[in-house]
Amino acid sequence: MTDSATPSVVVAEVRESKTHASPPPAAGLDDISSSQLRPAADQGDRGSAIVDSISASYSGPPGMGASQAMGQSRAPKKLGKDFMNQFDVPNSKAEAKKIGLAAALEGEPDEREELAELFQANKIVDKDDLYRSMSKMYLEFEKIRGSPKAASKEEEKENAKIIHDYGLLLKAIDTKQQAEAMFREAYERRKKIGADLEDEMDTDTLQSYMDLGIQLSRLGNITESSSILYDVIAIREKSLGSDHPDCLAAIVHVGNLEINVKKFPEARATLEKIITRAGETRDKKMEIIYLAAKHNIGMTYYHERNWTEAATLFEETYKARSEIVGPWHPDTGRSLYYLAHCKSFLEDFEGAEQAALESIRARKCSLGVGHVDVCNSYSMYAGIVRRGGKKEEAEFCYERAYEGLKESLGADAVETLEIQHQLGATCRNLKRYRKAQDLLTEVVKLREMVLGIYDLDAMRSLHLLGLVLKQRRLDEDAIEALEKCYTNRLKILGPNSKDTIDTKNLLAQLGVVKEEADNTKKKSTFCGCGAP
User: What pTM was estimated for this model as a whole?
Assistant: First the structure.
């Protein structure tokens, strides 16, 4: 995951609560945004004041907007206000104004650079603010499309800048293809301007080139992405030196690329270069790069299931980030999130619960209640406390995660359906069978529609629905669901699979005895089932 968390990463984070396996390599990775590294002098007077004040004083929560109303459901009476309030932080409109965020949100078009940088660094948190700013930028973009060729080089530079900044905003809402198209167009325009001025790779052109490479990596175009990123490193090493922050930032992205293709030892070697080159004495820019590299080294151990090494690095980066960028920053929340996972895997459940709670608070402050990363943290916390027997607390947190993901990603998104399944399972544990039945019936319907009837998750939900129907003494409905599940599991998994046997045994409890044919000699050639 980059500094701005993306839904593609969210798939992994949410599904982590189900499988207890490492998410896809892209999850949880830190990228270095240009806004984090650009010197104040390059931003203009007003932009410098806004961005620097946020970076320096981001120790409190920014403003909570309209989207934060979502998920603010009442806690069950058994839990009380104290339980619900532990997830909350002080209200913030006044604090948002102090750090200059309100001024940026209400800014005119000439402040688009600050808006883009704030988005890129995950500082703008309210959904309404985001789409309002997107609308402003889109109107400017359409003006460029509809206008004749710019009369001067300065106007052409400004147009290329608008396109690049629009790409940053598209990146912030994870519209990958559109963002890639904007970065490519900005790069081509800037390159043409530079060619006319006999400077094809100035700072702006190189930034668009690198952002294009990063976006291509997110789209899975590893070949072109790696070619671009290595070009960027070579150019920056030649012009700036191998120890320059901009050069090290590009190396972070190469390390991320290696993690994405599961070359974990190679990624560690790449990222260790940054640790070495950053040196003992680091300014704030270098410290941000250093901590990103350290976090991502932790991710390599995480994917290799070396929970102890990973936990050590995540704890170190969490503490350092709390000091450098503040306890409520998205980066701090990300390190806490993965620290909680590792502690859970190491069976330090008390430590995992505390880290998960802090990740909720940090992400909620910086990203807003409805953000997918906040939903992931709620889901992880729910899984931890449910394992400890706190079923009501788990239900409350799964409910928040479910409502947030349904709003953010849609009711039929894979991530939403997994949390809905977990919520249904928790309701069953609480003997709220009718609510569990309603939730699971919808999950089965949507999973079969989206993923197919032979998807492993669809069959898992169907089995659980059959169990709930059995517990409600709706035996005919239970038998219908379980027979369908058994037939599908037998076809895909075979008669000796634990899942198939579980469904068969449940049917036997309802008086249905299954005598399957000997399918062991003939292996199924079916390959369309979904991964768990």
Answer: 0.71
